[in-house]
## 1
Amino acid sequence: MKHEKNVRDHLPATWRWRCRLLPSLSSVRLGWSIFLLNTDKRVPTLNSRSMHPLSSLLLFRSAAPPSALPLRRRRRSHTPVRASWQELAGVLVFSAIPFTAVKALANSPLGARLRRRLEDRKAAAAAEADALRAASRGARNNSFWYGGDRPRWLGPVPYDYPEYLTGEYPGDYGFDIAGLGRDPVAFANYFNFEILHCRWAMLAALGVVVPELLDLFGLVHFVEPVWWKVGYAKLQGDNLDYLGIPGFRIAGGQGVVVIAICQALLMVGPEYARYCGIEALEPLGIYLPGDINYPGGPLFDPLGLSKDPVAFEDLKVKEIKNGRLAMVAWFGFYIQAAVTGKGPVQNLVEHLSDPLNNNILSSFH
């Protein structure tokens, strides 16, 4: 230690702060290891006993502190943000395939036959749909979750609940402190937005938890199983395999710009169909007996859950309740990622292994 101090005294002033980071030669070896991890050059192994301390300190002869070395590496690494015209053209062609196929089918002789067959059975299907809607209204009137006697968000606590919330919609607990449901048309739109985001949140929550579980148990190996690190891995140039299957990439081998454009174009069709209403599929000979929130039919209800009105009305309540929980869970996913830098499954495993030391309070120490 005395010999090292003498060496530090003869170093230039711009290097002395670096020496304070290296109180011993063991720290020099650690710094050398960090240097090797942040360079592509191969250098011979150095031994602190056979080398002069000054030569060890020269490893950190840089214009920036050692902590900036990983940042330099990240700047030099390839980030596939740009896209060539060939890739963009391929995305446009790939994204146009569904629209072109639907248009071609609608204008083909097969599409004409499908429309004629739909016209022949549409009246009977519409009558059956009307009967199901009437049965659903009766089921809501007799259900515990609908109407004036439904549960309220404050339970037995006296409260002046809004009169315009009549319990017609599933999941209506009389909660509207902002008065968003005063306009019936706006309230119907808000319910549509809510149920849509509930379904997205439930699907996305599965996409967060399942890959991390599969990777944790060694069933499937992913390039990056933690949900919030996937985008960073893509920015670093990694190829992402769907379901962990090597080579099964679809767009996982493309750049970020290509993936974003492809996603935007592919969402145009479904969003436009949703805007037009459930009648948008009738040119293809598909009749949907429900409404925009619950279209029904073989395409959206292959299990025939809507055929039992009583059970179906209860399923609507369960869906929106679990969807709201999924949206709240996503808020928790964001907070966990920001505070711990880990995935929700890893956080749960660590908490169960040591609940007293691994919890929300210990994260802020």
## 2
Amino acid sequence: MVRGRREQKLKEYLQQLPGKERVKVICMDLSSTYRSLVKKYFPNAMIVADRFHVIRLIQRKDWPKNYG
């Protein structure tokens, strides 16, 4: 686990993490920062949006405007 959500801290952690090339699936929220880090450090992994965040987005009134 990484303390905080700052991009630099996440990069530092992910750079030293072994076995990144073997990760197949990553379940995460829809943060564009997280998505770009996952694509960079886990090039073989498929990104799956976690259900909590998907449901929360659908329940928001601006869902059709932003995603539909």
